Amino acid sequence: QLSLDRTETYLDQDQYNLEAIFFAMAIHSWLAQFYDEGGQTLKALGAAKKAYHYMKIGFGLLDENPEFYFSTGLYNYYRVQYPESNPVYKPFVWFFREGDKALGLKQLDHASFEAVFTKAEALMYLAHIYLRYENNPLLATRYSGRLVKMYPKNTFFKVTYTEALLADDKHDSAKILIEKLVASKKDFYRMSGEIFYGIYLEKHLQKYGMAKDHYLEALTIGETLGARADNKKSLAYAGLARIAHQKGDVEEAKDYYRKAIKLAQYDQVKKEGKSYLRAN
Predict the structure, then answer these.
(1) pLDDT value of position 75
(2) Would the N or C end of the chain have less CB density within 10 A of its end CB?
(3) In the chain, which ranges are continuous DSSP H helix?
């Protein structure tokens, strides 16, 4: 709230202040994300409308400030993708300008090279998008790898990079990072490391019993974490479902997939789980 108050003070003094426009848009966007993750749909839409007011201004400022390539690219991509992945929002987005996913990705890529304040955010979202929605782990690895190179001490960026490496079948490179995550003192990183170790053992070495132990350990660690860890936990449940299927226990696999779908925030696990449930 303090950031928003100060930003609005600047806008009261100069409604064309580029930095103030950008920060007002960013603050309302973050609020929309916060409300959405908390299941507060109407509050999320209210914050999104306020963010959109400033985004529309930013659409015309790309040549004046490269930071707006980030916000415009993000808008163009998610204006299409988000309602597809979250149908509950479809009836409410008609008043937002149409998006363009391909253009959005190009604009985010531009921001990842030319922006100053949002370079890291552009790289983070590009890695996320290519990993979660575009099913392109090679590009997810490239963008997240750039992030890790820029910020070698940032463990959160290493989590995304490790997941991308596993998805891209670069198991040996991933294992080096996994071992460091498992040894972390922070539960979220340790939980992530246990999940990734499970994926490594399951998919690379076919050591299903050991993989199951790591998935279960991850879920035990995750019991103390909040909803923001749910998507990671969905990966563990999906892994347990695949292992149950390997040993011929279809009912157990179905039960694990239901749990995975319930916690999953993105299409990857949802599609895998729903496909299995339809087939069995």
Answers:
(1) 79
(2) N
(3) 2-13, 18-37, 41-59, 67-85, 101-114, 119-132, 137-150, 155-167, 171-182, 187-199, 208-222, 230-246, 250-263, 267-279
